[in-house]
Amino acid sequence: MIEVKNLSHQFTIGKKGKESVIPVLRNINLKVDKGEVVTVVGRSGSGKSTLLNLISGYMSPAEGEIFIDSNKVSDFNESKWADFRLNNLGFIFQSFQLIPSMTAFENVELALTLKGVKVVERRKQTEAIFQKVGLEKFTEHYPSELSGGQQQRVSIARALVLNPPIILADEPTGSLDSETEEELLSFIKELNRELGITFLIITHDDKVARIGNRVIEIMDGKLNKEAFAS
Ligand SMILES: Nc1ncnc2c1ncn2[C@@H]1O[C@H](COP(=O)(O)OP(=O)(O)OP(=O)(O)O)[C@@H](O)[C@H]1O
Question: In what residue span(s) does the ABC transporter domain sit (predicted)?
Answer without folding.
Answer: 2-229
